[in-house]
């Protein structure tokens, strides 16, 4: 989570010791989010159930996290996990099934995004130089379903924020918008797809997305 100087203006990337380039940091997408008062969450009770449920964490550093994700969390000024994140992150990191219920603004998006992005970053070699697109069809590695356009857009922006300066390419698709533009985004590659159900079905029927 430490700071690191970005590239000079004329440089496109750094080179790692193994000779492969790393992507430069990009400006974080602008959001209208109000800074979170993390201390206000300390007294919120949480109930967790399940067999041998992983113990909750107190700090993000309590779990093994990819350096780029840790840096993005730090840049976003996420000081410590919210209650739902304390319980959900270690469960997600353990690759366990999870169902969580919490109020709006409690950090649910980060609760499932952080373990997902972390796993993808840890397996960065499998991502390759570009996202998987075969025969004009996108093959996302992660699918996030959202009931409304507004929520899908919000999740997409969070995914952009926390996958910043990585090879992960998020794409959002929803109804009521130009489908051609969304298909062009898919053609450029898609690791994380955030979608509303109706538009997802439309694009699957058109052969633009494969979940197989």
TrEMBL record:
Cited Pfam families? DEAD
Q: Quick one: where's region Disordered?
A: 1-37
Record motif Q motif, residues: 58-86
Q: Where is the composition biased (Polar residues)?
A: 1-10
Keyword match Zinc-finger: no
What UniProt keywords are attached to this protein's entry? Answer: ATP-binding, Helicase, Hydrolase, Nucleotide-binding
Checking SMART domains in the record gives: DEXDc
Q: Which InterPro entries match?
A: DEAD/DEAH_box_helicase_dom (IPR011545), Helicase_ATP-bd (IPR014001), P-loop_NTPase (IPR027417), RNA_helicase_DEAD_Q_motif (IPR014014)
Residues annotated as domain DEAD-box RNA helicase Q: 58-86
Gene Ontology molecular-function annotations: ATP binding; hydrolase activity; nucleic acid binding; RNA helicase activity
Indicate yes or no for the key word Translocase.
no
Q: Which domain of life is it from?
A: Eukaryota
Which SUPFAM superfamilies does the record cross-reference, listed alphabetically? P-loop containing nucleoside triphosphate hydrolases
Domain Helicase ATP-binding per the UniProt entry, residue ranges: 89-212
What name does the UniProt record give this protein? RNA helicase
